[in-house]
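User: Assemble these into one structure.

Assistant: Restating your components, then the assembled model:
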Amino acid sequence: MRDQRSECPIAYGLDFFGDKWSLLIVRDIAIYGRRRYGQFEAAGEGIATNILASRLKQLVEDGIIEKLRDPEHGSKRIYRLTPKGIDLLPIVVEIIIWSAKHDPDSPVTRGYLHRARRDRDGLLEEMRRNATA
Amino acid sequence: MRDQRSECPIAYGLDFFGDKWSLLIVRDIAIYGRRRYGQFEAAGEGIATNILASRLKQLVEDGIIEKLRDPEHGSKRIYRLTPKGIDLLPIVVEIIIWSAKHDPDSPVTRGYLHRARRDRDGLLEEMRRNATA
DNA sequence: CTGGATCCCAATAGATACTG
DNA sequence: CAGTATCTATTGGGATCCAG
């Protein structure tokens, strides 16, 4: 098991996803509908292949994502959020709201703000649908 | 300036606080009312002193916390959340809710769950007061 | 081809000792 | 008390290699 730093729930959570990449993989699945290794690799942030592989493996071990056989192409594999992973989406939404508010010059980022603020639950629901589709 | 990985608001936020320590410092201030270097150092997770110093410096540069002269002991310094840092608290609350739900054996952690779920806004308000006191 | 594993090197994090 | 300095360990980037 992953070693735990303390009994604090915040430390507990950060021990799972407190790095620069894990929540981006969750985002890729829930917002952009990405499912395959190559799609994650092609995301704009340029994650290194070894890091991607190690994060995917860790997230599967942690029960946040699951690795399945692609029903349409039997040889390929796809990744999906588990219920435990879907429960991370409220955190993701709050990060969007924070960034949208404090990113001074990104119109892209600020575009999310109205959406996220006005229709937080709708955005969440859309992400959940996307993640389980 | 910090280098930005992409235009994505989630990547943007994680570039600020996407590590295992930054949000714990925010927590120390907002939940435990800690203000001084030594208090952060004494927190249960055992952060190394150089890491603590570097995180504090970065958070100040990022405008998430501010370093002030202690009004009671002029020679000492205290750290406090800025409004930008206070805006991180909804993220912290969602992490608490996630951890409380998915930490299988911690009564400490699960103790927060009822509070956070039942009275999310009250918890937030209390943290805000604590952070600005 | 896709989905990784491996390797090398650079960069970052961390433990510990020490200092103003 | 509030940090720096130093040294070591771990992580990360990027190229390349390998299996199905």
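The two ends of chain A are 30 Å apart (CA to CA).
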